[in-house]
Design goal:
Helix content is 47%, strand content 10%. With 177 residues, it is mainly α. It has a three-stranded mixed beta sheet with strand order 3-5-4, with helices on one face. The protein has a two-stranded antiparallel sheet with strand order 1-2. It starts with a strand and ends in a 10-residue tail after the last helix.
Length: 177
């Protein structure tokens, strides 16, 4: 990984990312630095998402690529089949996506959840707790419960992802009887 300003971006040889995405049935398309990024929701240099395809350049923020990939991983196959640019989804799914991207960051050497959380904060992810790390520690329990219940997610991510989720400092959910 390397940085553009204060944000982690993609190296041209994103081998680990490509392997993680392939497990999920996603294809990573790295475009030249002067090319437009297809299907980007936020505009360049943010990642683009269309069906099973993630589009990026070397200046695409890592948090953006992981976020779009995690949207695809978290959605049902039928929705993914018609996906182009806007992942949609309910608020709890969005929280699950944010949590999964922190999990995936744990699988990337020299990144980890803390570095990705700092990038998410720098980019402007908005959590009522004030930061990504505070959200994770104080309010991500419902996202964790949602994510753990999504069988399609766990069939599409490396086996190490479940251990990475367990290692994150997420407050346990209060279970109501």
């Amino acid at each position: 990984m390397h940085r553009v300003g204060d944000i982690l971006t993609l190296p041209k040889s994103a081998v680990v990312l490509r392997e993680i995405l392939l497990v999920a049935g996603l294809n990573l398309h790295l475009h030249s630095d002067d090319a437009a990024i297809p299907a980007t929701y936020w505009g360049e240099p943010e990642a683009g998402l269309s069906g099973n395809n993630i589009h990026a350049r070397s200046d695409t923020p890592l948090h953006s690529l992981l976020h779009e990939a995690c949207h695809a991983i978290c959605m049902p196959d039928a929705r993914r089949a018609r996906l182009h640019r806007d992942a949609g989804g309910e608020p709890l799914e969005e929280c699950g996506v944010c949590l999964l991207q922190l999990v995936m960051a744990q699988l990337i050497p020299q990144v980890g959840w803390r570095a990705l959380a700092a990038d998410m904060d720098a980019w402007g992810y908005s959590f009522r707790e004030g930061s990504t790390a505070a959200w994770l520690a104080q309010d991500a329990a419902d996202a964790r419960v949602w994510l753990e219940a999504q069988s399609q997610v766990w069939s599409q991510v490396p086996n190490a992802a479940r251990a990475a989720l367990a290692a994150l400092p997420v407050k346990e959910a209060v279970r109501c009887a």
